[in-house]
Structure formats: structure tokens, C-alpha cells
Specification:
Structural class: alpha/beta
Number of strands: 9
Bound molecules: 5-O-phosphono-beta-D-ribofuranosylamine
Oligomer: single chain
Strand order of the largest sheet: 3-2-1-4-5-6-7
Helix content: 25-40%
Largest sheet: 7 strands, mixed
CATH topology: Rossmann fold
Radius of gyration: 17 Å
Number of helices: 6
Distance between the termini: 20 Å
Strand content: 15-25%
Number of domains: 1
Shape: globular
């Protein structure tokens, strides 16, 4: 039997996307194995979710290091030791340096809750809400050294209707994330992603 596609998930918070991946890999909807959770917050609920699911975690305190490169070298060793095929950022609230970005070019992805390049950075759902756009959505993109600037892999639009509130919009965005993100990871697992500069295509198999 071919070995399963190996993913590591980086997360700093609630971990509802992390949980989706746990559920999707356990049910077989996603043919992949989560081999590691990386978190910069020991008290984050996502760490507990990993424990409950029996998934290894590597938790570090950024304040204990002089610079980002120092802890990223340790993370890189953890990833290499586990032969990670794809790094999946899911609410990981730190910018990455070239230590990780260069090692995982084309093999590291992030999900952002807006239609990039609109509303990058923090509180994207709220930014879109405050701006008053009629359509927002979600973006899965490759990770480069910038803030939400990597090449776009997939997007899904979410409408903002008159009857919406910020809370109902957040719910719709999170529901869309849970559909799209595992789907994109399955494309990687099946070797369907081709990257040419900023043009990413999904090959039909
Ligand atoms: C998600 O909305 C994602 O788009 C953003 O951070 C949030 C993480 O939520 N990058 P959770 O920790 O997965 O619940």
C-alpha cells in the first residue's frame, strides 16, 4: 500500500480548521495523515484538540528565542524528521522567515478569510464587514515571506446580504473554509497542483 500523504498543521488558536482535518482524515474523506501540530501557544485550545486526537504536537514559546529564525530551525528539524509533504497553516498568527519558506516553497499553504488581495492581515472578516462589500470569501494560497501575499490556489465567494450580521458572516466564512481547505489538501495529496510563478492550476486526474 502506498504510504499516506503527510501533513503538518500550524495553528495558534481555536483550531476549528485543525479539527476539520482530524475529522476528514479519520473518516477517510481526506487521504492523508496529520503527523504533527505546531503551535506557538501552549494554552491554545488547538493543543488540547491534538492531544485528544492522539496527534504529536510541537509547542514552543517564541519569547524564549532571540529571533524567529532560531525557533524556525527547530521546527524545520521536527518537520524533516517526520518527512512532512505539506505544511498547512490554519490560524497560525506569525509571519515566517526564509528558514521555513525556502525549505517548503510550493509545499506550504495558508487559508485566509477574505478574497485576497482584498483585506489581508488580521481581522479580515471584520475588515470586509466594516468596508461594506457585498461579496467576500476565502482564499487558499501558497505561503511566501509576505503577509497573505503568496500565489492563489483556490477561492470561494461568500455573499453579504442585508440580513447578515458580523456573526452570521463569520459562520458562513468558517463553514466555507471547512469545505475548501480539505479539498485543496486532497489536490496536493493526489499530485494535482501545478505551480508556474503566480499561476497555480489544478490538473484534472
Ligand atoms: C480561520 O478563520 C482562518 O481563515 C484564519 O484563522 C482562522 C483560524 O480559525 N487564518 P481556527 O483556529 O481554525 O478555528
Amino acid at each position: 500500500m502506498a504510504s499516506l500523504f503527510r501533513i503538518a498543521i500550524f495553528a495558534s488558536g481555536q483550531g476549528s480548521n485543525f479539527q476539520t482535518f482530524v475529522d476528514a482524515t479519520q473518516s477517510g474523506r481526506l487521504e492523508a495523515e496529520i503527523v504533527l501540530l505546531v503551535s506557538d501557544k501552549a494554552k491554545a485550545p488547538v493543543v488540547e484538540r491534538a492531544q485528544r486526537a492522539g496527534i504529536d504536537s510541537y509547542v514552543f514559546d517564541p519569547k524564549a528565542y532571540a529571533k524567529r529564525e532560531d525557533y524556525e530551525l527547530e521546527i524545520a528539524a521536527e518537520l524533516e524528521r517526520r518527512q512532512v509533504d505539506l505544511v498547512v497553516l490554519a490560524g497560525y498568527m506569525r509571519l515566517l522567515t526564509s528558514v521555513l519558506v525556502d525549505r517548503y516553497t510550493g509545499r506550504m499553504i495558508n487559508i485566509h478569510p477574505s478574497l485576497l488581495p482584498a483585506f489581508p492581515g488580521k481581522d479580515a472578516i471584520e475588515q470586509a464587514w466594516e468596508y461594506g462589500v457585498k461579496t467576500t470569501g476565502i482564499t487558499v494560497h501558497l505561503v511566501d515571506g509576505g503577509m497573505d501575499t503568496g500565489a492563489v490556489i483556490a477561492q470561494k465567494a461568500v455573499e453579504i446580504r442585508n440580513e447578515d450580521s458580523l456573526e452570521s458572516l463569520e459562520e458562513k466564512i468558517h463553514a466555507a473554509e471547512k469545505e475548501l481547505y480539505p479539498q485543496v489538501v486532497s489536490w496536493f495529496a493526489k499530485g494535482m497542483i501545478r505551480v508556474e510563478g503566480r499561476k497555480v492550476s489544478v490538473l484534472q486526474k
